[in-house]
Write a structure and sequence with these properties.
alpha/beta, 257 residues, 16% strand, binds D-glutamic acid, 44% helix
């Protein structure tokens, strides 16, 4: 496999841009192609088989571009499709899952809340993770929360009241951390943090995924050739405005912590 080829990324929409920004920072010589399947978003309230079909179609488009590796920058699509995609393609495929292990290793005391889409939380992959590391964790399905990000509604009274209601049952509990188990939620970190006790850690998977990607590229001798000029191409299954929105939101993703 030619190591100068691009790395494909995909998500149901804008969320995976937060993962792409982290990878592009760490791998400035790589070429990246990002597909946001906004025409079919959200994934998280669809069925397993629908998300499998949509993910397969998205990856077909990236594979046709000759990618050397794939990052499924979406917890929901990983849960529904990673096994089947790995069985079908020979390039390395890196998936994403809520960072519950990281949170559980770090915090043995207090409650860990895992925010994710309903489909992620129902997936066999997550159930297994929860059995192993969920001793002091509660899973919080957040239907509709990603839509705020797709609308670029990153702070609003409506978002505040959604989140307030979501966290209401845990007010007064001793919170150890909140896991952001959907890549869209990184864009609303501030709004989420505002509804929680000050300094509650918000944990995501981006650093771990980027490290995993680097390792898989190294193992397969797929790191970009020294001196290659890096590039980032963003495209959407939605209309031209959605592609412009990807560009806008990527600039924002580059400023995320
Ligand atoms: N960004 C996605 C995730 O990480 C999914 C959002 C959705 O399409 O519902 O799960």
């Amino acid at each position: 496999m030619d190591s100068s080829r691009a790395i494909g990324f995909f998500d149901s929409g804008l969320g995976g841009l937060s993962v792409l920004a982290s990878a592009a920072r760490r791998l400035p010589h790589e070429r990246f192609i990002y597909l946001g399947d906004s025409a079919n978003a959200p994934y998280g309230t669809k069925s397993d088989s629908e998300v499998l079909a949509l993910s397969s179609r998205a990856v077909e488009q990236l594979a046709a571009r000759g990618i050397k590796a794939l990052v499924i920058a979406c917890n929901t699509a990983t849960g529904a499709a990673v096994e089947s995609l790995r069985a079908h393609y020979h390039f390395p495929i890196i998936g994403l899952e809520p960072a519950l292990k990281l949170a559980a290793d770090r915090y043995q005391e207090g409650l860990i809340l895992v925010m994710a889409t309903p489909l992620t939380l129902q997936s066999a992959k997550y159930q297994l993770l929860y059995e192993q590391y969920g001793r002091n964790a509660v899973s919080l399905p957040c239907p509709g929360l990603m839509d705020f990000v797709e609308r670029e509604e990153l702070s609003s009274p409506r978002l505040d009241s959604y989140l307030k209601e979501m966290f209401a049952p845990y007010r007064g509990s001793r919170l150890a951390a909140v896991v952001l188990g959907c890549t869209h939620y990184l864009f609303i970190r501030e709004a989420i943090g505002k509804q929680l006790p000050p300094a509650t850690p918000l944990i995501d998977s981006n650093e771990g995924v980027t490290r995993h990607l680097v390792r898989r590229l190294e193992e397969n001798c797929l790191l970009a050739p020294e001196g290659q000029a890096g590039s980032i191409e963003l495209f959407s299954t939605g209309d031209a405005e959605k592609t412009r929105q990807l560009q806008r939101m990527f600039r924002l993703a580059q400023q995320l912590p």
